[in-house]
Design a protein that fits this description.
Oligomer: single chain
CATH class of the largest domain: Alpha Beta
Order of helices and strands: HEEEEEHEHEE
Shape: elongated
Radius of gyration: 36 Å
CATH architecture of the largest domain: Roll
Number of domains: 2
CATH topology of the largest domain: Chitinase A, domain 3
Number of helices: 3
Distance between the termini: 106 Å
Length: 226
């Protein structure tokens, strides 16, 4: 058979084989692309489902925890935010149970809200004064303590806040910047069961332009550590 005849006989067969191979590769490429799209859609579906579940959980179980703001405020054990600088809501539901929760052996005077009056003269330094000496452990930095308090302006004696009005004690960790500096320093070393008067200069409270400006006077009862 001549070379020319061979070319005519062999050429079309090779072309058909090449076409089949190309079609097979094209089918495989289409199949791989489809599988890849399926995997991508599966991942997107899983992410969307997770987002929906998180959103549903947030709606059903909302949280009202808030971070400490560096002032005399904190998130209490029941998740509510207490802020001694804010006025109490008279319509708020009051907690049940005996108030205040006094430590064992505490002076019965701690059951009565103290009368806080204005100070005398210029206040230039932090001045703690123990009014009732407790018998419990002394407060140290890092302790989580529970207190009752009344806060008034040192200059006028006007009350701006009191835990007594909410019928709910105030708890925080001392020495961690969760409260004003006058509390972080002035309550250290005070024993559980004590009532202490804290005269706090402006720079250790809210400042001259803060939410409660000027020097302040607090009367604080130490109810519990831990």
């Amino acid at each position: 058979m001549s070379e020319q005849v061979k070319e005519k006989h062999v050429g079309p067969s090779a072309a058909r084989r090449a076409t089949k191979a190309q079609r097979r590769e094209e089918r495989m490429a289409v199949a791989k692309a489809a599988a890849r799209r399926k995997r991508i859609l599966s991942v997107i579906g899983a992410i969307a489902g997770l987002v929906l579940m998180v959103g549903f959980a947030y709606l059903v179980f909302p949280t009202n925890n808030k971070p400490d703001n560096g002032n005399l405020s904190s998130v209490s054990g029941d998740g509510t935010t207490q802020d001694p600088g804010a006025q109490p809501d008279p319509n708020a539901q009051q907690p049940t149970g005996e108030f205040p929760p006094l430590p064992e052996g505490a002076d019965p005077a701690l059951k009565t809200k103290p009368a806080a009056t204005k100070g005398e003269g210029d206040l230039t330094k932090l001045s703690p004064k123990v009014l009732i000496e407790g018998k419990g452990a002394a407060v140290k930095s890092g302790d989580h303590i529970t207190v009752n308090y009344v806060g008034v302006s040192y200059k006028t004696g006007e009350e701006f806040d009191a835990s007594w009005g909410r019928q709910q004690a105030f708890d925080f960790t001392i020495g961690q910047g969760a409260v004003i500096q006058g509390w972080d320093q002035g309550l250290l070393g005070i024993k559980v069961g004590s009532r202490v008067q804290l005269d706090i200069p402006s720079e250790m409270a809210y400042g001259d332009n803060g939410q409660v400006p000027g020097p302040l006077r607090f009367i604080v009862d130490i109810l519990k550590i831990g």
